[in-house]
Structures are given as C-alpha cells and as structure tokens.
Design goal:
Blueprint: E1 2-3, H1 9-13, E2 15-16, E3 33-34, E4 61-62, E5 75-81, E6 90-95, E7 100-104, E8 114-115, E9 128-130, E10 139-141, E11 143-144, E12 151-153, E13 161-167, E14 170-174, E15 180-184, E16 188-191, H2 207-212, E17 270-272
Amino acid sequence: MKTYKPTSKSRRSMTGINYRDFLTTNTPHKALVSGGKRDAGRNNYGRITVRHQGGGHKRSFRDVDFVYNKFDIPAKIASVEYDPNRSGFIGLAVYADGEKRYVLLPQSVKVGHTFLVSEKAPVLPANRLPLRAIPVDTFVYNVALKPNGPGLIARSAGNSAKVKAQEGNYTFIELPSTEVRKVINTAWATIGMVSNEENHLVSIGKAGRSRWLGIRPTVRGGAQNPPDHPYGGGEGRQGRGLRRAKTRWGKPSGKGQKTRTPKKYSNVFIISRRKVGSKRGTALH
C-alpha cells in the first residue's frame, strides 16, 4: 500500500495502491478502447435506478473478454494494465493466431505468462476449464452460469469462488458472499483469484476523492422531508419512529429482515444461503 505525507487531515489517513509495482504500461491498446458517455445509474428512459452515482473523471472503455471463446489456442500476456471501470487489473492477451484481447488477470500472473482455454488445460492460474474438469477445493473466478456464456461471478479485485463438490450435472461453488450455489458443470471458470487483492485496504480519505470516482453523497433518511423518506420530517434529529426499518420506498430493511424476492427464479440453485453479520465469520481466503 502507498501512504502519503500528512499535509492535511484527510491526507493523513489516505492510502492507495502502488501501481508502479504491478502495471507495465499506462497506454492502452487503441484497437480495444472506445469512448462514450456513462449512464451514471440511469436506465434507457433516463430515470435513476441506482442512486448516488454521477460525475467523476472521464473514462475510456476497455473491451474486456469475459466469454473466452478461443479454444485450444495458447495466449501470452503482453502487458498488465489499469482499467478505470473495474477494481482488478487487466492484461493484453496475444493469442498464437495473432488476435489480441483484454482479459481479467488473476494474482501472481505477470508479463510473459501463457494460458489456455481448453477442456484439457492443466489446473493452473489463468487457465480456463469447464467446471466439471476442476478439482474440489480449487479457487476460481470469472465463473459463467451458462455453457459458453460470459463470466459473471467473482470478478472484483481479490475475489474468488471455491469449488465445493461435483454432483450429477452440477458443480457446487461457494461464492465470496459465503452462499453455496449449484451451477451447471458445462459452464466455464478461470483458475485463480482476481488480481489487485489490496484494493479493499484502500482508504479514500476525503469526500472529493469519492466524487472523482463517480460516487455521490448519501443522505440519512431522517435528514430528508416527509415526502422523500418514511423517516423524514420532525424538528431536529430524532429516531425513526417506526417499529421496523424501511427503505425509501417502504420496503423492509435492516437486521434480520429478508429482502430477497421470495419466489425468485434462481432460488432452486441455492444450496446454502449466505451468512450475514456476525454469523459470517472469516472470509474464504
């Protein structure tokens, strides 16, 4: 981690990633980079569906390959790069046939490392295999939920899922949330844990740095007006005045209240629900 001289109160507690120790270039591959406007939490109607997003530094979008549909063709990592749109590092993979793609890198993989997407690939970091070919207790990331589908699970910095068991046509995996879920074993996953594992140790330090990242402020419900929140109104600061905690839209929230849709389509794939609060214990790794 990188620390700073305490030239101000916020600077005293601020920390960051020492990118010089990991990155090999600060110029992305132009053919895989595009511009564009960020949605900032809005849907196709322009309405805010995710609050507290907006502003921030302008970003270029890297075309990262999460599908890995080039089978049995070895690739070599040509560079390790920063991607402003995700917490893990990406690498420029050059395949033996000359094609170049950005991929999400695991820990310990550096320039010159080769990987393979194949059903017969060895169980080594950055190699991608079907879940049925991965031994139990192996850490994986970028896990797909469908055969030949894109990787959707465990893509944040330092994250990984763990193969817990093989049963019939399904593989049981433990997610970073401690939930155990079954995934069809013809879906693919990459061996290893996502790079930049120190990311969760970064202390933002000041409000302005959050704004650079595109994170807008969050306001307490009790500080709002009655039309805006169930806790709003009243003279001065006071309790919520309600037996159970609610969200802005009146839905249950807080400790012990279930917020998941009771009949959600993916319930049949969950073997063990995630542990929350003090019950959760230690992380996977």
